[in-house]
Amino acid sequence: FETGKPGEVLENLDAYHPADAADLLEQLPRSVLSETAELLGEQFPTEILLELRDEYREIVVDNLPDAAISEAVNSLDSDDAALILEDLAEDRQSAILENMEIRDREELERVLAFDEESAGRLMQRDFLAAPEFWTVGQAVDHARANAEDLPDVFFEIYIIDPAFRVVGAVPLHKIMRTPRSVPLGQIAEEIEVEIGPDMDQEEVAYLFQKYDLTSAPVVDESGRLTGMVTIDDVVDVIQEENREDLLALSGVSSAGGFDTVVSSFRSRAPWLLINVFTAFIASGVISMFSATIDSYVALAVLMPVVVALGGNAGSQTLAVSVRGIAERELSGSAARRAIVRELLTAIINGIVFSAAVAVIAFFWFADVRLSLVIAIAMIGTFLWAGLSGILIPLGLQRLGADPAVSSSVFLLTTVDIVGFLSFLGLATLLLL
Amino acid sequence: FETGKPGEVLENLDAYHPADAADLLEQLPRSVLSETAELLGEQFPTEILLELRDEYREIVVDNLPDAAISEAVNSLDSDDAALILEDLAEDRQSAILENMEIRDREELERVLAFDEESAGRLMQRDFLAAPEFWTVGQAVDHARANAEDLPDVFFEIYIIDPAFRVVGAVPLHKIMRTPRSVPLGQIAEEIEVEIGPDMDQEEVAYLFQKYDLTSAPVVDESGRLTGMVTIDDVVDVIQEENREDLLALSGVSSAGGFDTVVSSFRSRAPWLLINVFTAFIASGVISMFSATIDSYVALAVLMPVVVALGGNAGSQTLAVSVRGIAERELSGSAARRAIVRELLTAIINGIVFSAAVAVIAFFWFADVRLSLVIAIAMIGTFLWAGLSGILIPLGLQRLGADPAVSSSVFLLTTVDIVGFLSFLGLATLLLL
User: Fold this and answer.
1) What CATH fold (topology level) applies to the domain B6-122?
2) Strands laid side by side in the B129-131 sheet
3) Interface pTM (ipTM) of the complex?
4) Which residue on chain B is closest to A302 by alpha carbon?
5) Which of A194, B18, B295, B387 gets the highest tally of CB atoms within 10 A of its CB?
6) Where are the domains of chain A?
């Protein structure tokens, strides 16, 4: 990559599948990647551009000339074209849009007007549609005659009525197995889900999983077919949503392979900052019992055990709950059942592990009352942790918030407070 | 569901899409679900059986008569049939297999012989294949003539040589747009990935994502085509692997919407049990400094701040690293870059947040030396947390272990030890 000859670099890249070439480029240091983009300019292969992860594609696009981007955008399906344009600064974006043919431009502007995480952004505007009275043979002949206008990849033909409303879909494998004379209406499958362009991409992904879809039509408010979403884009959404959940549970707002130190700091500092204050609230609770600790230093030795175990039990419940909500397993009676289950699990865990801790503490400090204090405090903390672990995410969900974001903060802070308060409070009552 | 009349129940269920009917059944209490399965018996709709989540399907299958299961298994593609059979106790499984036609039975036994998380289990044995000299027209005519033998759903025709080795694939949308006279070999696409029946399902899912596949052929050691994997099954795998990662990071071995209290306890107790011991190790560290705490009770008040912040910073790094490994972003030079980034992020976080904590501690206790002690201890703890957060998962991965499992235990235990040791140790040196 460092020879500086575009021809050689291109030859190297062409030897790979675009996805592998993109992997190779992602291994390069940031500066070499920018240089490569500049070097190749209009020759930068569009397929590789699409395969790059967001943060790398942004770097490349920033270093490509306008002409290269125009060319790429013109040759792509509308969803992919939007993907590239959305990375651009607004003035560059409008400059490139202005140089496009009026029809393509209007189409792209419509796509870009949709919310970034909506079905409208995910969909492409090319699709194959036919009236239900067409026969299989007519549909195939039409596709062959208009091969150039077809989307690059598609899995079904949509059946539309005269008002362009979707009334069904014929998967291509049904076209394959049906005689030419059969009308499409006769083999069409019902459309199971209605996807509007404003639907959140997470909802779209859920519907694809639930109904095992490979593609689905997108219809506007008046029921007219306006585009289609295909499974390859949905798989990316599934991964994205999963990443968000996992990171949010650990208090990270975003992360990618090319994060700089600055972006890492930015995505993690907010939760640590909140944690500074919550940690001092816990310290405040402890300081209320300074006198007790002063006369009974074993309390300082044992108190981290109470909150560590309670915090972990709570985090376990939280992970199970957040995942259950993400997989739509916790609605209606299932939610009630889960709350009861978590309550009972917390009671059992509390009894088992507080007994274990009490026994170990007794062998260490030979003080029955101390063992009793820690056992009672732990059962209380486990109960609190278990209930918070399910009620906080369910509550956040009911409020329309993301159940993964900030639920750890609430949980761990309150568990610390409950743990220290019950352990040191009981000790003050029973040991002094 | 409680009328006890199979006809009415069936009518109710038939009114819904199988996926929705399955959702409905999953809302029922365990006992009612068993009764419904018993009641419907052979009439239990196979499509709904497939849509149920694993733990619910197990309950239904346990309560269906052998005849009902035989019928379902006979009518299904081999991957779905295996899904139902694998839920059965071994003696019931072999009883049902014995009653099948010898060819179907051998096929199913071959599928069941593969490892549960392998491509062999994921694949179905029905597919459409043709030699490369066939024309588009011949392929379509063949499919129409043999419509009944085709798989229920498929997206491409595999091109095979005389030895049954796959040499390419023709997506159905290419069949649609190509004139009948064109030979398949001319429009075939290269097979980008070689999937063997023993490949781990996680690897299969990764390849599908990377190359945007909708289906892929599975070939045995000699290169012969033996089955195909389709995207709907892969999407389930992606969800499963994501769930495992998220739960493992919080110390839960498995979870599902129908978990009983017993299974919840079993999946969480191991990590809590380990945590009892690690918590006491941390207590042991604190008890080494009992004398120091005795004469300086503010240390007991502040020490949880050090380990809470350090633990959270470490969990953040861990989440980012585990996710990066899962998305294959951390190999080769990218891993080195990530280690450097985490080190620098830890230094910056350490400086920023130890300063914040030191200032708050100063306003509280008005003791410069105490603030200095907590600041130094925190920087050290952040460094340790950041490095463990990336090195532990990378190390586990290199050892061939799952980077998400047990890395939290290691991290949080060592952070506690480092935090208490540095804070209380420095205090003993500088404050007494």
Assistant:
1) MgtE N-terminal fold (1.25.60)
2) B129-131, B156-160, B166-171
3) 0.86
4) B283
5) B18
6) 6-117, 129-229, 261-430
